[in-house]
Amino acid sequence: MNRREVLIAAAALGAVAAAPGLLSFAHAAEPDKVAEAIAAVTGGKTAQQGRVTLTAPAIAENGAVVPVSVEVASPMTEGDYVKSITILADKNPQPRVISVNLTPDNGAAYLSVRMRLGETSPVRAYAVMSDGSVYAAEKSVKVTIGGCG
Amino acid sequence: MAETGKALIKLPAGYKKGDVIQAQTICIHPQDTGYGKDKEGKPIPAFHVTSVEVWYGEKKISDMEVHGAISKDPYISFKVRASHSAPLKVVWKDTKGNVFEQSAEIKV
Amino acid sequence: MNVKTIIAALLAALPLAVPAWAEETQSISDADLALYREGINPAEVLRNTGGELFNKKMGPENLSCADCHEGQKPKAKALTGAAAAYPKHNKNADRVMSLQLQINNCVEKGIKAEPYKLNSAEITALTLYVKGLSNGMKVNVATNGPAQPWYEVGKQVYEQRRGQRNLSCKTCHDELAGHTLRMQKLASIGAGASHWPAYRMVNGDTFLIEQRFKQCMSNARMAPLKEGSDPMVALELYVTSLANGAAIETPGFVR
After folding, report:
1. Looking at the predicted structure, is the pLDDT value of residue A14 above 70?
2. Fewer Cβ neighbours under 10 Å: the N or C end of chain C?
């Protein structure tokens, strides 16, 4: 039995449950908090796939700093532009990360940030267009705990 | 001296009028989420940036709603069309009502 | 089966590193790592502060670092490229000095002001600024002449096993380099010193290389050496000499 198997066995026996402090789920958002945050962005509209490119690492060695960028295909003219980009993280205690309102003067619908992830979680990007349509993209980011300090 | 509110804006070199350029910004800030605890186990109150405004000359071209999930020392990058020569001013506001400002010149 | 046998059996079953399949699925890819290096390094803001401190008037004669090293009639050498040779032997002090010790030496002897604490943000900022004046140039620290005994001591500090886990720097960074420790590849030291001071994402702060050594020693359960102490400066000299020939690129941006 290796260390991993010992831990799995211990967990199965409920040994870990006696030490809830070891687990970091205490602050994870309720699922309806995520739904609420999504509804606040989309206004209840169904988000379409496409147009939004979400770039994030597949594995983030450090949940405190996760580089995430969002690009939305749009001509960014007065008649057709991206009004807002919102980033959400399902498993964070507060799923809302950032929302940016854009104007045609931005020239391109682009947002790049460094964000926190409390644990492995889907990261979502929503783009609301000037005609009211909503596009979305999603990517799961696995958060591992780093090694030696 | 981790000087909260010190900021930096970076623009690329060698752009011309009409180009869409990427602006990178950073503002030194602890970004305490309100969910953390100090060494004695006492909760650390929320202290983070709540909004960012982007002004290009006299015009506000972008604003942002920022939450504690943006990492310590918030790094935010966006694009802007370099249509005329004017300062690009970024204004950060936080949960304590602090206001921080930094500008960079767009020259075309 | 007695207790000793059980312990021996368990120890034998403990893998030295996470198995290969875990490395594939748990380690960050190079492409993902590149995402981290895009954008502004927060330490650049601290470097700007260092530039302000460099120009700050201090002491009884109201002098700044810039007054001596820059301007119309500089009294001392311009600092472009200077940091590449540090840690370096100082004849008057008859010892090897790290860049931060040299800066403090100037503040104390030249400006006649109170030197900075070696674990202060101020000394990190100034070191970062002065080191930045050598960015793009090659690390070139002397390991011979008066620096040689310091180099030898530094090598010994690097190789000496100590602490609760009986580890040395060499254990992890040479002998086990490339292996995985808790989902992370152990790096060979190589030219690593060329990008310090660096911003560490884990701590969300900027550190001098000696502070990084202290963190590493704590994790390895060794009594950390004091910043600026002889064995610590010797270690900095040895590790920096491993980067000789590599281009200086500060501030670094590391995990």
Report:
1. no
2. N
- Which candidate from B61, B69, B77 shows the least CB-CB separation from A89? B69
Give all domains of chain B, ordered by start, each with its CATH number.
Answer: 7-98 (2.60.40.10)
Cβ within 8 Å of residue A126, ≥6 positions away = A38, A41, A42, A47, A52, A84, A85, A86, A88, A134, A135, A136
Residue of B nearest to A92 (CA): B69
Residue-wise pLDDT for A51-88, tens only, equals 999 999 998 878 889 999 999 999 999 999 999 999 99
Band (C73; pLDDT cuts 50, 70, 90): low
Which amino acid would we find at residue C157?
V
Give the lowest-confidence range in A16-20, B96-100, C166-170: A16-20
A12 reaches C (C-beta below 8 A)? no
Tell which wins on pLDDT, C34 or C128: C128
The mean pLDDT of chain C is: 89
ipTM over 0.90 threshold: yes
**Residues of B in Cβ contact (< 8 Å) with C125:** 1
CATH superfamily of A3-143: SoxY domain (2.60.40.2470)
Closest approach of A50 to chain B, Cα-based (Å): 20
On whether the CB atoms of residues C133 and C81 are closer than 8 A, the answer is yes
* Degrees to nearest 5, angle at CA C137 with C136 and C142: 150
Determine contact, residues C154/C239, Cβ cutoff 8 Å. Answer: yes
pLDDT digits (tens, 9 = 90+) for C166-183: 999 999 999 998 888 776
Q: Do C39 and B77 touch (CB under 8 A)?
A: yes
Catalytic residues of C: 216
Beta bridge partners of B15: none
How far apart (Å, rounded) are the C-alpha atoms in residues C15 and A119?
26
Taking an 8 Å cut-off on Cβ atoms, the answer to whether A59 and C29 are in contact is yes
Query: In chain A, where are the structural domains located?
Result: 3-143
Task: Tell me which chains share at least 3 CB pairs under 8 Å with chain C.
Answer: A, B
Neighbours of chain A (3+ CB pairs under 8 A): B, C
Q: What is the mean pLDDT of residues C32-40?
A: 84
| Cβ-defined contact of C184 to A61 (cutoff 8 Å) | yes
Please answer yes or no on whether C15 and A67 come within 8 Å at the CB atom: no
pLDDT attached to residue C222? 95
pLDDT score for C130? 97
Q: Are B74 and A113 in contact (CB under 8 A)?
A: yes
Give the C-alpha separation, C251 to C229, whole Å. 24
- Strand-pairing partners, residue B103, are B89
**Are A64 and C201 in contact (CB < 8 Å)?**
yes
